[in-house]
Amino acid sequence: MAKKEIPYKIYLEESEMPKEWYNVRADMKEKPAPLLNPGTLAPMKREELMGVFCEELVDQELDNDTRFIPIPDEIRNFYKMYRPSPLVRAYCLEERLDTPAKIYYKFEGNNTSGSHKLNSAIAQAYYAKKQGLKGVTTETGAGQWGTALSMACAYFQLDCKVYMVKVSYEQKPFRREVMRTYGASVTPSPSMETEVGRRILAEFPGTTGSLGCAISEAVEKAVSSEGYRYVLGSVLNQVLLHQSVIGLETKAALDKYGVKADMIIGCAGGGSNLGGLIGPFMGEKLRGEADYRIIAVEPASCPSFTRGRYAYDFCDTGMVCPLSKMYTLGSGFIPAPNHAGGLRYHGMSPVLSKLYDDGLMEARAVEQTKVFEAAEQFARVEGILPAPESAHAIKVAIDEAMKCKETGEEKTIVFGLTGTGYFDLVAYERFHDGKMDDYIPTDEELEKSLSKLPKVNG
Amino acid sequence: MAKKEIPYKIYLEESEMPKEWYNVRADMKEKPAPLLNPGTLAPMKREELMGVFCEELVDQELDNDTRFIPIPDEIRNFYKMYRPSPLVRAYCLEERLDTPAKIYYKFEGNNTSGSHKLNSAIAQAYYAKKQGLKGVTTETGAGQWGTALSMACAYFQLDCKVYMVKVSYEQKPFRREVMRTYGASVTPSPSMETEVGRRILAEFPGTTGSLGCAISEAVEKAVSSEGYRYVLGSVLNQVLLHQSVIGLETKAALDKYGVKADMIIGCAGGGSNLGGLIGPFMGEKLRGEADYRIIAVEPASCPSFTRGRYAYDFCDTGMVCPLSKMYTLGSGFIPAPNHAGGLRYHGMSPVLSKLYDDGLMEARAVEQTKVFEAAEQFARVEGILPAPESAHAIKVAIDEAMKCKETGEEKTIVFGLTGTGYFDLVAYERFHDGKMDDYIPTDEELEKSLSKLPKVNG
Known about the structure:
Two copies of one chain form a homodimer. Chain A has 18 helices and 15 strands. By secondary structure, chain A is of the alpha/beta class.
């Protein structure tokens, strides 16, 4: 193998790590639509949000103008325990594909939460601590976000209360155990601890829970407990802000070696990883300083960008949260039970939704059997066992690299490898045993779900 | 928190990565005792070993004189995908312990095998490929070594045949699934595929297997299959040689920042991690250039250093492998079933055994409930969820840091954090639920097991 001028892994120095988060909204001419109060349909006021979220996080949520927001030292010190994350040149994958494309991936899996979620968890925990709160509440599905938040709360010695979808609680005891190691209390949802939980259990005694129900329990617990607030790991503007550390590091690493990306690829569920990864690149594009192809990859079984509608919708199934204008499949949409991994949220970050609607990025839906094929191919040459979520981006990166092979173009492809698949091996097993199949919702199903969008859309 | 002159994580540049492995035997005045043929009791000849192991690995096994052995480029390129591993300054742990000690750990868990095992797996796979073999066979207990070897074989497109102790195969399906992802064939042992497996199954129809039995099956498969050899992940001299990359990187990182270690601490099962970590430091000590306290930490339930005997013994329960002079509990010794994680081998690397016998290092046995307490304490401040094996070293590092707090000494403590605990959550769960206990073998039990040492010891 020839001598490589660019290292296999680019690690920035601590001194090169970002000192500020980047707020892409500041560079958007048209801003994302505001959150609406579901009762009055008026834009949510700062004071209304303060009862649910931490003060400084509300300010970040509403701030469409400040381009750079300083990262507090306490958060930067925590970042230093697992960041900068490496930007990896996929030499071995390139060689195996025999492509002239140059492939890079930003790997966010080298921390115990196993994903990028920790970048925002530690920020949200910090502001809760700073406000003098006792603790925070949240919901978690498979447990990635809950794990990240548990780690962050352990660090700041905050109480952490996680409502975990009951079916996951029972079937994924290992993530639950990681959360317990970090001192979090984990409750299967729906539970008898909240009014909404008791109501749902009375109505559907055998239910195994849903993310929407867990959100409702977590919000109720936060607003009804002295010294608690609710935190969320995706979708929100503040989360994209914190996650911009991914894109800032990626850009700094590329700049350091004089590399210009041609396309940026990321998986998209609620948009936390994609929004963070593409932020600074999108900023250049918005300011007319550079051009990039930006590709969001979503599961064909939960295709909010490619088959959803850009409209106001509820963020939760319980319909207690504000209305948000976003690409949505309808708040009642639930992906087929054979869908593996995350990326199962019915909606998409309002910021990304606006950018997509404005034609500034593309989206592609991929089927999960193809995703697992790409995951396995990647693991065998690059070593890392990817999370199913991350493998959506791998799939499209490989597709694009193979197009380069046909055309002979030496494009530079950058994708986000959000995390590791150590807790997804049941899905890998189904794949190996040939028991995994694809499910694509029919037009009728989507139409039915979308017919229930709130009336504000007219 | 004050400004830190030493970064949280020291990453060497690619150009600073070791180009040669270090062979500590070259600096030992008295060499470790040779392997003996169990039939003739004569030292094993090169030719005798060639039928079982790859040629160049046999040469490395027998080479007591060459101080530095070049790392082939193909292996260095693979190392670049997950190395250099970070040397982490445990600022947060120091702060929480309120100790004047400076604590560093070399973290080997940032790769999909989850441990340092990959360092030797890729070397052994490389030499097998170079020799033109079709594949390799091995055994695995919990699956860490099998996973590492699967990854290495996938990279070189070698066939990989793993005999996995049946009880682990059934109870730890996730590690098995990682191996399958990398294309390995995994067989529960004992199996009907080998003569020894069939014999054992006939004699003990309900057996759930043992590492000793799996070794015997893997060796039989290797010697009876055209184009196959057997590989092993610990104990052997060659494995310590490959693992010296850990110690070389650690020393280079400390030297770069002008830090002198006072003590080096590592967990010890068969000795692969400990031998690799301490190698270059022990070399300085042997050459009289520097002094270090070196502490091996082993489980109280499998205490080969602290309660074993330095004698010739079988490496496997099946008694087909050569005899090795080492600290041993007797080849029939099996740790209590409540023992969590690895470090359950009855013997210890012959190199480390000799060094320990010569008084060049200390050993300490620790109980597993204390180990898990240390693991949890560490995870909550440093973020990383440690493997139970690695947590043995954490326990003693914390003990030593607390001694510094008493005396006010600012000692520099370096320990090896060999891996992550993502596949050990059943043990963590037992710990959280208060269902974990300690078991220390009685003198009578050890005496009984040691009474069966081979007659060559006189």
